[in-house]
Amino acid sequence: MTTATYNRILLKLSGEALMGEDPYGINHTVMGRIVAEIGEISKLGVEIAIVVGGGNIFRGMKSANDGLERVNADYMGMLATVMNALALQDAMKLAGLVPRIQSALRIEQVVEPYVRARAMRYLKDGKIVIFAAGTGNPFFTTDTAAALRGMEMNVDIMLKATKVDGIYTSDPKTDPTATRFQKLTFDEAIKRNLQVMDATALTLCRDQKLPLSVFSIFKAGALKRIIKGEDEGTLVTI
Question: By residue range, what is the domain housing residue 91?
Fold first, then answer.
């Protein structure tokens, strides 16, 4: 069996990743591919925690800019992440994985509340823990929630799954001369304003020395290659 470089990881999965090329919602074909990739690293014995976003259903910041009160908009965004977590849980069960959802908002009829000790026990038992509802507080992104949960779970690395295969000098969709960084420091990413994650999340990772890998979830085998320590995406460290 291939040896994994990392024993425990936190995967930040955006809501946009779940909709694929669709304009809205969840693309179940894409969801199935993502779950298959997660299943591959689970077979290596890697303990997996996931923070899922909700931008495919509702974006709090945009709605706040459109006139909705920011606090209410953010809570609505948190509920969207719970919906994605439930869909992800079902897809994982169909694939033979054992997921558990924990929510930062208390919705006990639907999902259990976040309890750190219980989440740690699930990970040690080989279950995949899906964290929903962000931090449970308005004004914080799911990027920040991912950094926070990664630190609380004592993970070896945080992986941010995007539609682009790493961090580039500029937007590769509009700039044909853009080149991918193989490695970066947190200070460089913040100074260059490369839009990797929000500044709060980057600063948390830097201060707690939590490595970050940014990669494309749509590139077949990319997640497994990162786990094996191969050159994939962009690694951000101290």
Answer: 8-237
Residue type for position 147 = A
Q: Measured in whole angstroms, how far is the alpha carbon of residue 118 from the centre of its chain? A: 20
With a cut of 60, say whether residue 228 has pLDDT above it: yes
Flag whether 111 is in a domain: yes
- Backbone torsion region of residue 70, taken as left when φ is above 0, otherwise alpha when ψ lies between -120 and 50, otherwise beta: alpha
Provide the H-helix boundaries in 7-115.
15-19, 28-42, 60-65, 70-94
Cβ distance 157 to 6 under 8 Å?
A: yes
Number of independent structural domains in the chain: 1
Q: What predicted TM-score, i.e. pTM, was given to this entire model?
A: 0.94
Contact 182, 233 (CB under 8 A): no
Contact 207, 154 (CB under 8 A): no
Q: Which of 166, 167, 157 has its CA nearest to residue 209?
A: 157
Tens of pLDDT, residue by residue over 172-194, are: 888 989 999 999 999 999 999 88
CA distance 139 to 101: 22
DSSP element (H, E) containing 74: helix 70-94
Helix then strand count (H, E) for the chain reads: 9, 9
3-state class (DSSP) for residue 50:
strand
- Give the CATH number of the domain where residue 143 resides: 3.40.1160.10
**β-bridge pairing 234-237 and 212-216:** antiparallel
What is the share, in percent, of the chain residues with pLDDT greater than 90?
85
